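Model it.
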Amino acid sequence: MIGVFKVRGRESGFTLFEILIAAFIFSVIVTTIFGSYRAVFSTTEALNSGMEAFEMVSGSLDRMVVDITSACVARYPGYYPPKGDSPPDPYRIAGDQGALAEGDFARLRFASFAHMPMGTDRTGGIAQIVYYVEPTEENRYVLKRADHLPPYPDMEEPGNDPILIERLKSLKFLYYDTEGTEHETWDSESQEFKYATPAAVRIKVEIGDDSGSFFFETMVNFPIVREPRE
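Modeled.
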């Protein structure tokens, strides 16, 4: 007699151990996917911030290049070095560290044919251009561009001038004489510089916030140079 044996099959369902393993694997997959999305979003935000910074500073530097390459410089024999209480040269080039006690912010003053008339006033002429930094109410800094036709204001006090760059962290102007020597300041009315004007200026800009910075730099040649004279 042939016996028939019935093999009992495994009942359907999962054990608790298998469920825990599956939950663990699922959590790893979700964490990986979430981390990837966070990385993508973080990278996208950084790229967008970088593009906004590039567009803002690039446009501002283009404006500064136009101003400087249109500079007006008085040359010999029309230029006379200052004597006694004589008024300063209206077309002088002066670069210093500005009026702010905090931060690394320079200032540049010169005359230029690149005057930008405002509103309905289309008067042209040689303007005094001043790049200077001013603090905001949010404890940040902005770069402003003053543009005034004669009579030129003193510019010791900041004015309601248009903003070139926001979120400014540092601004440097480095000046180069005809020999290529670098100077951190310049005064074309000073005997220290032999009453000469710089041949070129390098502009270095840093913008950003507490989370990071963006750096920009360009170098511009002045169209006319007054040679040094003892």
